[in-house]
Every structure is written in structure tokens, then in C-alpha cells.
Amino acid sequence: MTPRWRTLGALLVLLVLTAGFYWKLTISHEWTYLEGPDLANVVRPWLDFEAREFHAGRFPLWDPYEWAGHTLIGQVQPGITNPLNWILFAMPLSGEHIPLTTLHWYWVLIHWLGAVFCYALCRDLQAGHVASLLGGSVFALAGFVGHTDWPQILMSSIWAPLVLLFFARVARGHAPASSASLCGAALGVAFLSGYHVVPTFTMVLVGAMWLVYLALDWRRPARWGHAAIFAAVWLLVSAVQVLPAIEYAKQSLRWAGAPEPLRWGQPVPYEVHAQYSLGWPSVGGIVLPGISLHANPHVGFVAVALALAALWYRRRDARVRWFAFVALGGLLLALGTDFPPYWLIYRFVPMVEKAREPAMAIVLAQVGIAVLAALGASLGRGWAGTLALALFLGEAVYDAPRLARFDRPGSYTAMIQGQADIAGFLKAQPGWFRVDFDENDVPYNFGNLYGIEQFGGLGSSLPLRIHRLLGNAETPRLFGIRYRVARRPSDPAQVEVFRSRSGLKVYRDPRIAEPLWTWRAAGCAAPDRLRVVSRQPEVFVVEADLGCPALVVVGDSYYPGWRAWVDGARRPVQELDSVRAVRAGAGRHAIEFRYRPASVYWGLGLTLLGLATVAFFCLREPAA
Hints:
This protein is α+β, with helices and mostly antiparallel strands. 49% of the residues lie in helices and 14% in strands. The protein is built from 25 helices and 19 strands.
């Protein structure tokens, strides 16, 4: 069999293994991974919103459905800069939602891709085909990757094998310049994936490996050049996500487990890292199932035994030494505050203090063990690898992730289905308005799920301007919060206008008009007339007929990146009471607001420059 057919066969085998391992999602229609609170309340609504925007021919940068407008790309976790997510968003919708079957296969295929990347790493290190299948399975079906349900976290984790693959090529002198650029690109893409914790710890570990690589022959200028290529490409490729995230961080509060929300420049306390460390008691969980804290480390007896065999019988092999370093380094990082030098890493390595969950670094140890297990399985006869794979799969099935049934008591899926008639009623109401939801009755982000503007939303951050207005008596008028969904009104003026089959009621406040008005320092004898012409997430067009010059004010949260045009002429956007305004003269005008953030455009340009740099080095060294 030719190498190409062997590779295609291996990919198919990994697909069958992954789909079979998660058969409850691929075959059964009774189970789901989406019943976790964060997944049901936040992640699924995000994905639905992004998919609807893709189908409308728009690339979503701004989320109008939470908190009177919120940057989507700046929040990072929606994962809009992740190219792999674009495939999901392009899939057919069912009633403006991503079908659950599609979401299930999306999650399974993330695991398959992780298995493929780790298989590629093992093969590149000259492990056998079956042994590499074992390595890919250990990485994708067990431990952290096998038991993590957040797709963003999975997406950020599966790139670690490719980062290490290209570093290993640099270390052994295989097309080092292009391999260094590909190593940086893989790490950069990990930062685009929607979660920063695993990529941050990958950066720490791989950075330490680069330091070792330099120290081994520090007098060779070429080595320093390779390290510079890696660092430059990593920073460039990640820029399209990192720059908007920094811009948003400066404008927001973040809830990160500290007693109070944190502002830009305030580090996540060391005590929070201690809370989310793996801890020494969980180390036994690498071999024995059921012993874990904050992250599942279990890869099983077979994988650990084979890894130890590789360490013993191939202890002089540079491949084994490097990946023993990976396994040990990942474990020590995951121990967090139980590893005393971690304080120095937390204190002096940039970004680490923001990666508040060191336990997630166990995924790096998992990569190291998977590779060592593949190298250990390659020591025996041909049948030994097959037997090891079968025994590992038996262990993995015994400790398979616990999925939830749709028909469980208190199912989020049933709750969402039971409240869908509320969305139908609200969408039928005229005018521009926002809705307030009682989070005890509607805990999920209703606005993103159905495309209805709400003043609220579940998340780990909030713009400072909005936070300052919470509880203010003028807030409903500023943002046009006309409706409330709850079991009882929050104000005597609210009138019941709809009752859902779920028992929830919709109340209307007749005092609240559209959040669109004019402001001027002095009075004006002639009246003003304002009309909403069109409203899309990133484009808002208003027709204004003004009796006198004035500020035209719209009840959308003020945020950098919004631009305004009056009759086609660019005008500065002003902030008035935390909302947006633009000055216009007397008479009739067409006013257009568009979200055009410079941070995104600069970031995109830098990312494209990073990819061009990779292409340049790969063309110079095509062997990579």
C-alpha cells in the first residue's frame, strides 16, 4: 500500500474510532453535550447568531442582541476568528438555528481533528502507523480533550500537536526556517480559536523549549533567527483576534473568580489560580479514572505504561527526551500553585496571570504522553501496537465522558422549546425596542438565540459604560427597554400583553418609546421627526428631519469603532449618556452608523502578513 493510501486509511480509521466512541452523539438522538449551563445559556446562542449572520452574507463583528450592543470579536469566546468555525456557520440551518445533529457532529469532528493532528505528530517522529493511531486516540478520546465539552476550549487545544510537530522539525534541523514559521502559525491559530488559556500555557511550554534549543548551541546565529521567525509569525497570525480583545479589555469589566470584577491592568489574583490548579492529589488520576480537579487528566494504564517503556528503552533518543520534557512541563504547569516555581511564571511571563485555569495545561502533558506511548508501542512486534490500541480503547470506553439526556428533569433543551412562542410574539411587535428577561426564568441568552435585542445576557464580561448604568432610572428610556419577560412585572406601569405556554408572561411598558431622539442646548420652535430606515447588526440607518441643528441620539451603547455618515459625509460619533450621537444640521438627512473597528482591520492586515511570511519561508524550503 502506498504512503498516501496508508494516510487516507489512517484518517478513516480515526474517524470511525472517534464517531464510534461518541456514538451517543453520532447515532443516538437521546443524548447531547449541550446540557451544561454555559453551553446551553451562552455557547449555543452565540453559534446560532453567528450562523445566521453567515447565511445573511455578513461577517459578524458586533453583537446587537446583548446589553444594547456588544463587540463580538472582542469577547474572544464566540470564536468568530476561527476558520474552522466558518464551516459550521455555513452549514444549512433549521428555522434560523443550527440543527442539534450538526452541533453534535461539529463536536465529534473537533475530536477527530485533534486525533489527526496528534497522529501526524507521531508519524513525523517515525512511530508506526498503528502506534500513531494509538497516539492520536490517547490525545483525542481520553483525558482533557476527551472530557471537555466547550468547543472553544477544544478548538484551542487541538493545535498543540501541530505546534510541537513543527518545533520538533526545527530541533532536528528539518527545514528549520519554514518549520519555525509553521510552528508560530499553529500557535497563532490556536489563539484565534476562541479561548486563551490553553494557547497561553502552550506558549509558556514551547517558549521554554525554544530557550533550551537556543542554549544547546547559543553561538549559532541561525538558531536565534529561527526563534525570531517563530515569535514574529505567532504574534502576527494571532493579531486579528488579539488586538480587538485588548481593545475590549480596556473598555470592560471581567468576572474571573476574584471577589470583585477586574478592570484592564488588574491581574487575576494568584488565589484564583490556586483555586483552579490541578493539585498533587489529581496526579494519580492520570492512571486511575475518577481522580480529577478542574480538568480530567486520565489517559489510562496502557498509555502510561507504554510511555514509561519508551522512556526506558529509548532514553538516549532526542525525540523521547523532548516529549518527556513536554509531558513533565505540562504536568508541572497544570499543578499551578502546587508547583512552587509557578509563582515566578505567573508574575513575570506576560499573559499568564490572565490564564486563570492552570489545570487546563494538563492537555500538554497529554500530548507528551500520547507521543511517548506511540513511540513505546513501536518497540514491539506488529501485533503489539494493535493489542495496545484495543486495550487503551477499553480503558477509554470505561471512563467515557458523561453526556446528558434530552429528557432529563430540568432539561435546557425542553426549557428553550417551551419558551419559543415568546420569540414569535416579540418578533411580531412593531418598532425598535429591547427586552428585559428575568434571568431566573430565562437563564440563556434569548436575544442571540432568536435575534431579539435584549438588555441583559450571560457572560464573563460587561462593558464599563453599561455597568455604570445598571439600576439607573433612566436606563429603560435610554435603551428602549419596552418589554419584560417574567412571571411578574418589575414596575406597576407594565401591562401583560402575552402569556407563554411555559407560564411566563410578557409585559409592555407604554411609557417607553423607540430609543431615538434629538438633543440640543437650546430649544427649537420647529418639530423634529426621526424614523428608523434599516437596522442590521453593524449598520443602522436613520432618516432625520430636524427643525434646528441638533445631536441625533440613538440608544445603542457607545464603543470605539463605530463610524457615522450624514448625507454621505463622514461625521464624528459622539458619546452622550453612554450612547451614540452624531451632529446634523436643520433639514432632512440620511444618517448611517457603521461598525468599522480599526483594531480588526489592523489585526487582519497583520494576520495576512503573518500568513504571507509563512508562505515565503515554505516556498524557500519546500521540504517542510
